[in-house]
Specification:
The complex is a heterotrimer of chains A (about 120), B (about 850) and C (about 325). Helix content of chain A is about 75%, strand content about 0%. Chain A is mostly helical and about 120 residues long. In chain A, α1 (about 5-40) runs antiparallel to α2 (about 50-80). The longest helix of chain A is centred in the first third of the chain and has 37 residues, at about 5-40. Chain B has a two-stranded antiparallel ribbon with strand order 1-2. A two-stranded antiparallel sheet of chain B has the order 3-4. In chain B, α6 (about 215-250) packs parallel to α8. Chain B is globular, with a radius of gyration of 28 Å. Chain B starts with about 25 loop residues before the first helix and ends with a helix. Chain C is built from seven helices and twelve strands. In chain C, the strands form four sheets. Chain C has a five-stranded mixed beta sheet with strand order 3-2-1-5-8. In chain C, strands 4-10-9 form a three-stranded mixed beta sheet. Classes of the chains: A mainly alpha (about 120), B mainly alpha (about 850), C alpha+beta (about 325).
């Protein structure tokens, strides 16, 4: 049976595995909702004005990217430090890093349209 | 095929259980698992039987929906045809899409999971056999009645995605739309039940040693599939509820004049709809990932990358739904987010395709019929995937959206991506459940006819769409350039039908159900479902040390069948399987499983009666049916939660496990948590609907604080909710001291907690409804009223369920079936209770806090 | 496999042959800047997709048929990473860059001094209103729009009942008509011609027969057309036509308008210049005395469930003069 620190590390690793998809979902929801509100409330002043859209999206992407890079780094380090050498834990660490990398790519691609596409069109 | 090293601490010898096995051990095992015979087969709950019923039913729906397509193709073969009139044609295309998507595609891939997964994981059955039986019967009854609406001219005709306002009360005055909403609505419950079962089964019932890295790739695919169902289906269930409320009671969610918006439906539907197509594809990809290595006689290349691909597809597919709405006028930047996400989601598919090619390249392919269908799948699916990338490009989408180009695309990805692998799977896994294989000779004909027919039918449609032909047209004019293309498509469709007919003939001729005498591992595959099986699945539960156990442990089959591994018989005399830990698959406890019974079938009939009678507005009979269903479910539940009714069991190898576990480690807790995720998504969809309607219709939102219900009301409501939770927590604390043998005060405190909690929960809702009514808000007056009352209605559904569950838990306590050790029933009730309280509190915060925060 | 690929090749060639018999598909036959930019993207996508497909199929064949030593490289994880990750990331990044720039241009193009036309979609026809720069209605017509070449047309799209979609493939992509919203579609024609459009969002029984025509003229021709359309309907010159008008006012004025007469109904299409249109019934039939008569007497047979009942109570002679009158409204 696994010892207590081992069980805790395993739980932490499992949560880390879920983190990247949640970051992707939160980022996507945030940029979509903000853009939609900015266009729906265009011209009425208030929180959501068109000029702040690029800032909000850029900021959300930077925040997401930072969390993802940390996740990747932690997962890689945990994978290297893992002395139990069971296939399962290295697998979980690898999967965590790989999913986070995929999410990072998706988040960057989703931000690119800012450069060329008008907000409300 | 080098065997992977056994992990430390798990030596292969000595095997857990020594020979010779006791004389009656096998006989007792067989007796516990004895299938019912004759007409009592209706009471079967064994996953093998339910799986077969399920696959067969789904295939029949496939044939039925296929016939509808043939009729449509006859009508479209020539311009200005009069074979079908517009009324019948519009019902046919709606039913074709609806039956294919809801009654064939998702059920068949779920059914194959039900059939294969336990064996593949080294388990004896799924963790909730009666639940899968219930899900199957509900699907069979509901689906059949729904399909029958065609014969009464009453079928829905709004398209399979049923966009309002066309499908609302003003423009669809018949019952057709209601059949769709209520019929399909409750079939989705079936899918969710199956998904929860698959999640718990894959995570908790694997053979020891099958840690996550050794999980068969198909099981990964099904795990992602089931998770996607949990997160995607609630959105369409909510949409269904909203449209039915609009139709029945005129609550204006989608009526623009009263603050509603037709696009709300599309957002909710496609939030489900896009993941839905990946829900259909991923299991097929999983099947391909098992078939390819077997056909190539070498392990799957880049296994880890494929797991990444499955998981990546799983969540990225939730960011694509607006692809179906590019032409609705949504802001351009918003559209681009979805276009970019669409590019991202094609990378996982590319990974899989090239991994399969690499596996072929590193092996020696035996070109049996399964391999032929896999090759056909590759060709067709790659085309579909490429046209998918094309339609993710917004300007191109603006030309081809809602044209035959999309019809081509969707058939290439769905037929190519699921039906071809399905036929490969039929040929591949028939020897698992049949005495005879299917004919390889006829199989080549089936493949040829279907492959040629499919491309002949659908390839021209790319051109037809670009040539200007929209979807869903019952006829078209001559001279528009569409005539020849349509004729080609019709010919192709009939070729497909010929192939399917040959296949069906082959099945009828050769397929003979067998478990122990099944043809067996004719392909020399490596995964566990090919172990020798009986109705009990495997004789003993093996230790797994690699991903292809049959390739790496040559004596595995013989040893498993001799009873050398874990749990070679039945410890309690009942059906059992082993519960193991989620990541490392270490044995944790013994799960006692139910045998055959009538309650799942009867409960399904009652549930079906409730929904279907409501559709035809026979309210009292519907309520009777619903009541009957509840009684049946309670009867079934009464036999569950047996408590620690047996001493811990020695399953072999020095491992002793308890026969009953409660708390966060138990399978029922995990199932409840999955259900709470579903509930959370349902609630989240409604919160989205509230905020969305506010975004598009701020003019119907109350701007004056004085118009809102006065402040004491929500605080009273919140206090009642919180106290309800406290009462349940109080009962839970008391339960810890409530011994089985002593009739002490602890038991009374448990009951007090339950008795107090129920009216508190109901009263909280009553106060909220009263407050809204007093303030003058009415659900039919505007979309604001509609969504506020729907939040209350949703809460009301939970209140009703919890009153039933609370009463049931009380009954168990009264009968001495609830105590500090035997508490799974209470725990499940408690989990849902706290969830409902949290949901209620959040709803109050939204309804009373949000308008006030607007200043 | 090779036998099957021969079948496929034959099928593809047949399709191309037969498809080509009717000329280039309209969506790839641009006559306006929106359609032109989209067609360029379409060709890139089609050729790119076809090439990738061919490449992948070649790899499949190679993986199965080539000798094991020669194909060993194909079986390595590095290949999967290269082909499944590196290549798609590069290709899709390039595609994103290309398509987003084009999309950005399309989405932000406004055109100087656009001509504004309001379209209201109904089951199953198109109400058309020409607006001036201040938004006042200049002309009401139905099912056919005439536009000047080289000028941006702003179609303001609304719906009176359910979802519809406005699509003229020769000129550009489609945009939906959604109750409660006004969606603006900007198109232009860069040469004269007649372009067919069709509703592209399922809207019920006769979605299949909800078409329209866009006719592009030179600027001078367009001005002449507009001026003629703004005049009231032609006064009937023969006794037969006068009789026809009388029948019209007695039976049809409740739903239809002919400016210059007492008929001012707005439930159905404006018929002031119905004789000048290419089709009747929103593209259901060509426009001549015979089809007009047939429509009046039996529209429910031609376009079942449409909003106009069949007027089968007219005698043959009545029907004839009524149809002749309508046909004279050029």
């Amino acid at each position: 049976m696994m010892d207590a620190p081992g069980r805790m590390a395993s739980k932490a690793a499992t949560w880390r595995l879920c983190l990247a998809p949640l970051i992707w979902a939160a980022h996507f929801l945030a940029i979509y909702a903000f853009t939609a509100l900015a266009c729906a409330r265009k011209g009425t002043g208030g929180w959501f004005d068109l000029a702040s859209v690029p800032w909000f999206i850029g900021g959300a992407t930077l925040l997401a990217a930072a969390i993802l890079l940390v996740t990747i780094a932690v997962a890689i380090r945990a994978g290297r430090r893992d002395t139990s050498s069971t296939g399962a834990s290295t697998f979980v660490h690898w999967l965590t890093a790989a999913i986070a990398a995929l999410v990072l790519l998706a988040v960057v691609w989703e931000t690119l349209p800012l450069i060329w596409v008008p907000v409300c069109g | 095929m080098t065997p992977s090293a056994a992990p430390p601490g798990q030596r292969l010898t000595p095997l857990p259980n020594p020979l010779p096995r006791p004389d009656d051990e096998l006989a007792r095992l067989e007796a516990a698992w004895k299938p019912p015979s004759g007409w009592k087969l209706l009471t079967a709950v064994n996953n093998t039987y339910i799986g077969i019923f399920y696959v067969a039913t789904a295939f029949v729906f496939f044939l039925a929906a296929g016939v509808l397509a043939l009729l449509m193709r006859i009508q479209l073969a020539v311009p200005e045809n009069t074979f079908l009139d517009q009324s019948l044609y519009n019902q046919l295309f709606t039913m074709h899409g609806t039956v294919m998507m809801f009654l064939f595609a998702v059920p068949v891939v779920e059914a194959i999971g039900v059939l294969l997964l336990p064996n593949m994981l080294g388990a004896r059955d799924l963790p909730f056999p009666r639940l899968s039986a219930y899900a199957f019967w509900a699907y069979l009854i509901g689906g059949t009645v729904f399909f029958g609406s065609l014969f009464f001219g009453n079928a829905p005709d709004g398209g399979w995605f049923m966009n309002p306002p066309l499908t609302s009360y003003r423009y669809s005055q018949g019952q057709g739309a209601d059949w769709w909403l209520l019929g399909i609505g409750f079939i989705e419950i079936s899918a969710i039940a199956g998904a929860i079962e698959i999640i718990v089964g894959i995570l908790r019932t694997r053979a020891p040693g099958m840690s996550l890295d050794k999980l068969p790739i198909y099981a990964w695919a099904m795990l992602v599939f089931a998770g996607m169902i949990v997160f995607a289906f609630p959105a369409v269930i909510l949409a269904t509820m909203l449209l039915e409320l609009e139709r029945a009671f005129h609550w204006p969610f989608f009526i623009a004049e009263l603050g509603g918006d037709p696009l709300l439906w599309q957002h909710l539907f496609w939030f489900f709809g896009h993941p839905e197509v990946y829900i259909i594809f991923l299991p097929a990809a999983g099947m391909v990932s098992l078939i390819v290595p077997t056909m190539a006689r070498t392990p799957l290349v880049a296994h880890r990358l494929i797991v990444l691909a499955l998981a990546g597809t799983g969540f990225l597919s939730f960011g694509l739904w607006v692809h179906h709405m590019f032409a609705t006028g949504i802001p351009s930047l918003s559209l681009s987010f979805f276009a970019a996400a669409g590019m991202a989601v094609s990378i996982p598919s590319a990974i899989q395709v090239f991994a399969w090619i690499a596996t072929f390249a590193s092996g020696r392919v035996q070109l049996g019929t399964p391999a032929l269908f896999v090759l056909g799948f590759l060709a067709v699916f790659v085309i579909g995937g490429l046209t998918g990338v094309m339609v993710a490009v917004v300007p191109f989408n603006w030309q081809v959206h809602d044209t035959y180009f999309i019809v081509a695309h969707l058939h290439y990805v769905l037929f190519g991506g699921m039906v071809f692998p399905l036929f490969a799977a039929f040929y591949y896994w028939t020897p698992f459940v049949s005495r005879k294989r299917l004919s390889e000779r006829l199989g080549r004909w089936v493949f040829g006819l279907i492959f040629v027919g499919f491309n002949l039918a659908f390839l021209p449609m790319h051109i037809t769409g670009l040539a200007g032909m929209p979807r869903r047209v019952y006829t078209y004019g001559a001279g528009l350039g569409w005539d020849n293309l349509n004729m080609l498509s019709t010919v192709g469709a009939f070729l497909i039908a010929a192939g399917v007919a040959v296949f069906t003939m082959d099945v009828l001729r050769n397929w003979r159900f067998a478990i122990t005498e099944a043809a067996g591992n004719v392909w020399n595959a490596g995964t566990l479902e090919w172990l020798p099986t009986g109705a009990y699945s495997v004789r003993s539960i093996p230790i797994v040390t690699s991903r292809e156990p049959l390739w790496d442990q040559p004596d595995l089959a013989a040893n498993v069948d001799a009873g050398r591994y874990f749990l070679p018989g039945t410890a309690t005399g009942r059906r059992e399987t082993l519960l193991t830990s989620a990541v490392y698959a270490r044995p944790e406890y013994l799960l006692q499983l139910p045998g055959p019974g009538w309650s799942p079938l009867l409960a399904a009939a009652g549930t079906a009666a409730f929904f279907l009678l409501l559709t035809v507005k026979l309210v009292v009979p519907a309520l009777i049916g619903g009541g009957f269903a509840i009684v049946m479910i309670l009867w079934w539940m009464w036999g569950s939660d047996p408590g620690p009714n047996h001493a811990p069991v020695n399953i072999g190898g020095g491992v002793t496990v308890p026969v009953y576990v409660t708390g966060p480690a138990s399978h029922s807790w995990w199932a409840m948590v999955s259900l709470l995720l579903v509930s959370g998504m349902l609630f989240g969809s409604l919160v989205f609907s509230y905020l969305y309607l506010w975004t598009v219709s701020p003019h119907v939102w109350p701007t004056d604080r004085d118009a809102l219900p006065r402040l004491p009301y929500p605080f009273v409501s919140a206090a009642l909710l919180a106290t309800s939770s406290v009462a349940i927590a109080y009962g839970g604390r008391a339960l810890r001291k409530a011994d089985a043998d002593s009739p002490g005060s602890a038991h009374w405190r448990v009951r007090l907690g339950l008795v107090a909690a129920m009216p508190l929960l109901a009263a909280a809702l009553g106060v909220e409804l009263y407050a809204q009514w007093q303030a003058g808000f009415r659900p039919e007056a505007s979309s604001y009223g509609a969504v506020v009352y729907t939040l209350a209605a949703l809460q009301g559904q939970y209140v009703l369920v919890l009153i039933v569950m609370g009463g049931y838990t009380l009954a168990r306590s009264w009968r001495g079936l609830l105590d500090c050790q035997r508490r799974a029933t209470f725990d499940n009730t408690m989990l849902l209770w706290h969830y409902a309280v949290a949901q209620g509190l959040l709803a109050l915060l939204l309804v009373h806090g949000f308008p006030r925060s607007l200043g | 496999m090779s036998r099957d690929s021969r079948w496929r090749l034959a099928a593809v060639l047949a399709v191309m042959l037969l498809g080509a018999c009717s000329g280039m598909p309209v969506a790839l036959d641009p006559h306006g800047s929106n359609a032109r930019q989209t067609a360029r993207i379409a060709w890139v996508l089609l050729w790119g997709g076809a090439s990738i497909f061919a490449l992948v199929m070649a790899l499949v064949a190679y993986a199965i048929l080539e000798s094991p030593t020669r194909r060993a490289w194909l079986g390595r994880r590095a290949f999967v990473i290269g082909a499944g990750i590196v290549f798609p990331v590069a290709a899709l990044s390039a595609l994103l860059f290309y398509t987003l720039t084009v999309f950005g241009v399309l989405a932000s193009s406004r055109g100087a001094a656009p001509l504004r036309i309001e379209i209201v979609g109904q089951m199953w026809w198109w109400r058309v209103r020409y607006l001036d720069a201040d938004g006042a209605t200049v002309l009401v017509t139905a099912n056919e729009m005439h536009i000047p070449v080289g000028r941006t047309i702003e179609f303001a799209l609304e719906s009176a009942d359910v979802l519809h979609s406005f699509w003229v493939p020769n000129l550009g992509g489609k945009l939906d008509l959604i109750p409660g919203r006004v969606n603006v579609l900007r198109l232009d024609a860069d040469r004269t011609g007649v372009f067919r459009g069709q509703c592209a969002e399922y809207c019920g029984a006769q979605h299949a027969k909800m078409a329209f025509y866009v006719v592009a003229h030179t600027a001078a021709e367009f001005d002449a057309w507009l001026a003629a359309q703004r005049l009231p309907g032609n006064a009937p010159r023969t006794p037969a036509l006068q009789r026809g008008r009388a029948l019209f006012i007695a039976n049809c004025a409740g739903c239809h308008t002919v400016r210059g007469t007492a008929a001012m109904g707005e439930l159905g299409p404006d018929l002031t210049h119905v004789g000048s249109r290419r089709s009747i019934g929103a593209g259901a039939l060509p426009n001549n005395v015979g089809t007009i008569a047939g429509w009046i007497a039996a529209s429910q047979h031609i376009k079942p469930e449409n909003a106009m009942p069949s007027f089968d109570g007219f005698s043959g002679e009545e029907l004839g003069v009524l149809a002749a009158y309508l046909e004279s409204l050029k």
